[in-house]
Amino acid sequence: MSPLSDAFGFCGPSVGPTPPGPASMALAARLRSVESRNVTFLSEAFPVFWSEAKGANVRDADGNVYLDLTGAFGVALAGHAHPEIVAAIAAQADRLIHGMGDVHPTEVRVQVLERLAAMAPWEGARCVLASSGSEAVEIALKTGALASGRPGILAFRGAYHGLTMGALSTTYRRDFRAPFESRLFEDVTFAPFPRAGREGELETSLDAVERALEAGGRGVGGAPGGARPGTVILEPIQGRAGILVPPPGFLAGVVERARATGAVVVFDEIFTGLGRTGEVFAFDHENVAPDLLVLGKALGGGMPLSACVGSPDVMTAWPTSRGEAMHTSTFLGHPLSCASALAFLDILDRDGLAGESGRKGQEAIAHLRVALSGVPAVREVRGRGLAIGVELQEPGSTMPAAGAGARVAEEALTRGVLVLPAGETGEVVELAPPATITQPQMHDGLDRLVAAIEAAVA
Q1: Mean pLDDT computed over 330-356
Q2: How does DSSP assign 260-313, residue by residue?
Q3: 43: buried, middle or exposed (CB in 10 Å: 19+, 13-18, 0-12)?
Q4: Between the CA of residue 202 and those of 192, 198, 206, 241, 323, what are the distances in Å?
Q5: Which pLDDT score, from 0 to 100, does residue 396 have?
Q6: What is the rounded CA–CA span in Å between residue 140 and residue 233?
Q7: Mean pLDDT of 173-183
Q8: Which residues share a beta bridge with 421?
Q9: CB of 387 closer than 8 Å to CB of 432
Q10: Who contacts 446 (Cβ-Cβ below 8 Å, separation ≥6)?
């Protein structure tokens, strides 16, 4: 293995006394005084405040350098501040920063829509652009209702589709839902999400899907009596639930059952799409296509951009604009985001980022499985491509180690590595590094993460 580079972006971690340092702590105090307390978790041990990022490195306000194994929530698939993306943003900013959404479109918006339509699994695909993943989910749910003529929705336990009111109705996490339960759309049924390697879970899940599509349901428990689903929404791999990979045949089974009842299928690939799992889209692993595809995160190359892409049959459920769009926004197809997206899509294709994700992810999972095989608190290392989860359990049992993912994230921070907690009870350590991370960086980061896991939960 070649040695680590000294260049920022391609180097290993370099941290001083236990972070967060004084500059981050001072910024935390300032933030606490002006930001709503529900937004950022602040403690004596977390977080650090970023000041610069490049490649797979992040520098904080105190000058500490970290290896970023989060990809900034999976956004930085091409690495932070990729020079071609930076140049594209700068060039666009010199020409046109803001357009007029659905009134006077921009050339760069047309180019992005053409690229997405060409990548889609349907001839004549149509797209709606947005700024956030949640908004793209809202568009997909509206489209499903228009196309199917039925308001009910089928989602899955463990699902995370966003926190705006419509998206939140399809997000399973009770801690997110509970304060707003009375305002959420009631006609949502949640079926079990099966996990690869768990005997009987595929059949149980598909049976529940079939029953819900025929009879409907209501609420988190899916009690009978709600509107029959006209839309099915799912993540091909559940991300925030802890990188849950379903067994082969699950996606195809859901699509088959949904189409038999006239329901529209939405694949939420905000996290998994555009190369993260080793294919351009995660559904490509099963050679099956949805009716609607939701994209975000990596799409904007670091800028806020998302999209709902659909087959022409489904998207024509929207009426022709007569001067007022039924779903639009001020920053629709923002020129800077579109320019950044075009540069990212060029890099994705030219540099084979999907293949890089597949190869590096396979190596990383194998490395972690061997290195953590003797740690009793590690229940499973799983994933696909560079979407990786390490599930932790209470030593001596199979009970999830609630909160252990956060403890590992804090310990890893002191060792110069950024990871995230995930899972219903925070029992998973989630990794989603850039596909451009170098092999020396990956090996160094994984070794540091193993040491952090051993220190935090052994």
Answers
A1: 98
A2: HTTPEEEEE-TTTTTTTTSSSSGGGGGT---SEEEE-GGGGBTB--EEEEE-HH
A3: exposed
A4: 9, 8, 6, 17, 47
A5: 86
A6: 9
A7: 95
A8: 429
A9: yes
A10: 364, 367, 368, 371
Whether the predicted pLDDT of 221 surpasses 50: no
Question: How far is it, in rounded angstroms, from Cα 216 to Cα 368?
Answer: 42
Contact 430, 361 (CB under 8 A): no
Number of H helices and E strands in the chain, helices first, is 14, 15
Report the amino acid identity of residue 415.
R
The secondary structure of residue 432, as a DSSP letter, is -
189 has pLDDT over 60 = yes
DSSP class per residue in 90-127: HHHHHH-S--BTTTB--HHHHHHHHHHHHHSSSTT-EE
Q: How far apart are CA 303 and CA 410, in angstroms?
A: 27
The pTM is what? 0.96
Please compute the mean of the pLDDT values over residues 373-382 and round it to a whole number: 96
Torsion sign (Cα): 357, 360, 363, 364: negative
359's tokens: 């190869």
Tell me the CB-side half-sphere exposure of residue 189, using CA atoms within 13 A.
Answer: 28
Mean pLDDT in residue range 149-176: 97
**Angle made by CA atoms 321, 327, 332, in degrees to the nearest 5:** 100
Could you tell me how far CA 304 lies from the centroid of its own chain?
13
User: Is the Cα dihedral 339, 266, 432, 68 positive or negative?
Assistant: positive
Judged by DSSP in three states, 143 sits in helix
The whole-chain average pLDDT of the chain stands at: 96
Task: Tell me which of 22-26, 100-104, 406-410 is least confident.
Answer: 100-104
User: Of the candidates 431, 430, 423, which has an alpha carbon nearest to the alpha carbon of residue 175?
Assistant: 423
In the numeric block, the tokens 């001839």 are attached to 123
Q: How many CB atoms lie within 10 A of CB 199?
A: 7
SS3 state at 446: helix
What letter would DSSP give residue 181? Answer: G
- CA gap 196, 211 in Å, rounded: 22
Beta strands in 332-373 (DSSP E): none
Distance CA 109, CA 104 (A): 11
Q: Which residues pair with 54 in a beta bridge?
A: 57
